[in-house]
Design a protein that fits this description.
- The chain is an alpha/beta fold.
- The chain folds into two domains: about 1-115 and about 290-320, Medium-chain alcohol dehydrogenases, catalytic domain (Quinone Oxidoreductase, Chain A, domain 1); about 120-260, Alpha-Beta Complex (Quinone Oxidoreductase, Chain A, domain 1).
- Helices cover about 30% and strands about 25% of the residues.
- Strands 3, 4, 5, 6, 7, 14 and 15 form a seven-stranded mixed β-sheet that branches.
């Protein structure tokens, strides 16, 4: 089968063996793929969980048609149109655990639209609701809101009852679009005064919950923006893994700071996360209320151009690759 295969110097589109599902897995013929920033690290020689190194197939998100299911899989059958997350996704045929397979909600939803959803839905429902303990009526700030998962986070916060949603970006063009995806306030986080502006959005008390995709230099300013007894969930480190951190401010405000990742979770934990997300959000997925913009679409043979687009960091929403 055709696949993206990592090499010593990068990657190539070559041939790889067609996978066989285990008793808990689903085999999908993929029609579309969504790029994620973690892919760039793997393509540059890094490791993301179990994925990395020459011979590996990267890719975390795809949509397609079920070809075969394992003996213990229930509720999924050959011919179903599905959207999936997992590993080794940039290939004609992909396997993943049944717990990471979601039905495509309507015949009118294309594979390209569907592939944008799985990771953002399960990641941000977990960050907001489970790890972040978000309650209806709270003020929520999404740090780095113009990414695909950031745009989904704002929408999930809204449908789950947040009173005020704040999105941040340093790009004026992206800031101007955040209100279309749930932001009541769009704040330029390159402005040194942004923590005060965020606090003012909640009557000066500060933000109840921050979902941080940036880290780095934003560590202490996040504390400044937070309310007493606020919560911060660390999802990503796009601005760096290391920086100064005001531990005294953290203690004074009694802020709960939680880190999350899927890399160290068991398959049972991932199944539970996906199940909870679907339980809360399925009506909004089905109605199309939770949706992401597609910035650009590339053919599979032009996937190198898609990666270059992501490295340029000028996109808004998801970059998609189509096998069709």
């Amino acid at each position: 089968m055709k696949a993206v295969v990592l090499t010593e110097t990068g990657f190539e589109i070559g041939e790889a063996p067609k996978p066989t599902p285990t008793e808990d897995q689903v085999l999908v013929r993929a029609h579309a793929y969504a790029l994620n920033r973690a892919d760039l690290g793997v393509l540059s020689g890094g490791q993301h969980g179990s994925v990395g190194g020459p011979g590996t197939i990267p890719g975390m998100e795809w949509a397609g048609e079920v070809v075969e299911v394992g003996a213990r899989v229930r509720g999924i059958k050959p011919g179903d149109r599905v959207m999936c997350s997992g590993t080794r996704g940039y290939a004609e045929y992909v396997v993943t655990d049944w717990g990471r397979v979601m039905p495509i909600p309507s015949a009118s939803m294309t594979y390209e639209q569907a592939t944008t959803l799985p990771i953002s839905i399960i990641t941000m429902h977990n960050a907001l609701i489970t790890a972040g303990e978000m309650r209806a009526g709270e003020t929520v700030l999404i740090q780095g809101a113009s990414s695909g998962v950031g745009l989904m986070a704002m929408q999930i916060a809204k449908v789950m009852g947040a009173k005020t949603v704040i999105g941040t970006s340093s790009n004026p063009g992206r800031l101007a679009q955040l209100n279309k995806y749930g932001a009541d306030f769009a704040i330029d986080n390159s402005d040194p005064n942004w923590p005060a502006l965020a606090a003012q959005a909640n009557g000066g008390k500060g933000v109840d919950l921050i979902i941080d995709q940036l880290s780095g230099k934003f560590g202490t300013p996040n504390l400044e923006a937070c309310a007493v007894l606020g919560r911060i969930v660390n999802v990503g480190r796009l601005a760096g893994r290391f920086a100064e951190f005001d531990f005294d401010l953290h203690a004074a405000k009694r802020i709960k700071y939680t880190g999350v990742t899927f890399r160290t979770r068991s398959i049972d934990e991932v199944r539970e996360i996906a199940s909870r997300a679907m339980g809360d959000l399925w009506p909004h997925i089905e109605s199309g209320k939770l949706a992401l913009p597609i910035d650009s679409t590339y053919s599979f043979d032009k996937i190198a151009d898609a990666f270059a687009k992501m490295r340029g960091n000028q996109h808004f929403g998801k970059i998609v690759v189509s096998m069709n």
